[in-house]
Design goal:
Oligomer: single chain
Structural class: mainly alpha
Largest sheet: none
Number of helices: 11
Shape: elongated
Helix content: over 70%
Order of helices and strands: HHHHHHHHHHH
Number of strands: 0
Distance between the termini: 34 Å
Strand content: under 5%
Radius of gyration: 18 Å
Length: 206
C-alpha cells in the first residue's frame, strides 16, 4: 500500500472510528493521519507533536498524554500500519506463507513511517521509553507472524518445538538489509529464495 493509499485508508478509518470507537479511537486515527501528512511535507526531523495536534484538530495535551515523543508516535503508527498490511494469511504451505509475509513486509518497510523510524533509530533519537516501545512492537509482530510457523508444525512441515522467531528472523533479515543497508532492489524471485531458504533451514534444524 502506498502512502497515498494509506492516507485514504486512514480517512475511512476515521469515519468508522467516529461511528464505532468513540472519540478516543477518532483521535488516534486523526493524529495518525496528520503525522503521515506532515512526514511527507516536512520530514521526521522537523516534525513536532504540537504541529501534529494542530493538524489533527486535537489538544496537544491529549497527544502528549498518549505519545510522549514523536518516536512513540512513529512506533504506534508503524504498529497500526503493519497490523493492516502485514498478513499471516494461510496459503497452505510454509514457503508460500513466508513469501506472502515478505511481500507485505517489503511494501510496509518502504513507507514514510518506516523510513522515519529507521532514521530515528540510527541517530539514537529513541529515549528509554521509546526503546521499550520499539522492543514491544517487534515482540508483538513476531507473535502475530508466529502463526505461520504454528500452521507449518500442524501440517507436519516443521518439527514440533521449532523456534518461530528464529525462522521469521531468518526469512525477514535479508529484506531489512536490502532496504536499510545496501539499498539493493528486492525482486519477487529473491523473496521466493529468502522464503525457501528459511524454510529449508528450519526443516533441517539449522
Amino acid at each position: 500500500m502506498s502512502d497515498a493509499a494509506h492516507q485514504k485508508a486512514q480517512a475511512k478509518e476515521n469515519q468508522k472510528a467516529q461511528r464505532t470507537g468513540g472519540r478516543s479511537a477518532a483521535v488516534v486515527v486523526a493524529v495518525h493521519q496528520a503525522a503521515i501528512e506532515l512526514l511527507g511535507e516536512i520530514g521526521y526531523d522537523a516534525l513536532q507533536l504540537p504541529e501534529v495536534a494542530a493538524r489533527a484538530g486535537v489538544n496537544k495535551t491529549t497527544v502528549y498524554r498518549r505519545w510522549p515523543s514523536k518516536a512513540h508516535l512513529m512506533l504506534d503508527l508503524m504498529s497500526a500500519l503493519t497490523a493492516r498490511q502485514v498478513s499471516g494469511r494461510d496459503t497452505g504451505s510454509l514457503v508460500d506463507d513466508l513469501v506472502a509475509l515478505l511481500e507485505d513486509l517489503t511494501v510496509t518497510l518502504q513507507s514514510r513511517v518506516a523510513q522515519a523510524l529507521l532514521a530515528a533509530s540510527i541517530r539514537g533519537s529513541f529515549d528509554a521509553q521509546a526503546q521499550a516501545a520499539r522492543t514491544a512492537f517487534f515482540n508483538e509482530r513476531f507473535t502475530r507472524s508466529g502463526v505461520i510457523i504454528e500452521r507449518a508444525i500442524a501440517r507436519g512441515e516443521l518439527p514440533a518445538g521449532t523456534d518461530a522467531r528464529l525462522v521469521l528472523e531468518d526469512a525477514c533479515s535479508p529484506i531489512y538489509f536490502r532496504l536499510f543497508v545496501s539499498g539493493d532492489p528486492i525482486t519477487p524471485a529473491e523473496i521466493g529464495l529468502y522464503a525457501a531458504r528459511a524454510a529449508l533451514r528450519a526443516q533441517s534444524g539449522h
